[in-house]
Amino acid sequence: xxxxxxxxxxxxxxxxxxxxxxxxxxxxxFMKLFLPGDLPWIWxxxxxxxxxxxxxxxxxxxxxxxxxxxxxxxxxxxVFAAFGTxxxxxxxxxxxxxxxxxxxxxxNVFMLISAAFIAWGRGKKYPIKITNQPR
Length: 135
Prior knowledge:
By secondary structure, this protein is an all-alpha fold. The chain contains 6 helices and no strands. Helix 1 (about 1-35) crosses helix 6 (about 105-125). It is elongated. The two termini are about 30 Å apart. It is found in: Membrane. InterPro entries: DoxX.
């Protein structure tokens, strides 16, 4: 019984982290693609191509972290999206460190740890099961 309660709490926590990360990435992608002039960072004006690519990748990460698991259509894609998000965050940290902005990577570290939690949780500990599989 205690194990079931812990698994239920883990599932709820995973969904909360997935939704929060998803909303953050969707918002970020939308802002980078449609309102880049409103963003306060200097690198956005210096690197418009990076902003475009980053916005597209952010939107894909946002949708990939929740939709496959929510719709139960190939839910293992959520784990792949989490690994992709981890790669994105590592790339962002390298980008900021190379620009001398190492003091600004705290948010990226938090997002990296959250994505690693999702990859671990949905990959190993509490994967989403497909309920209506054709046989």
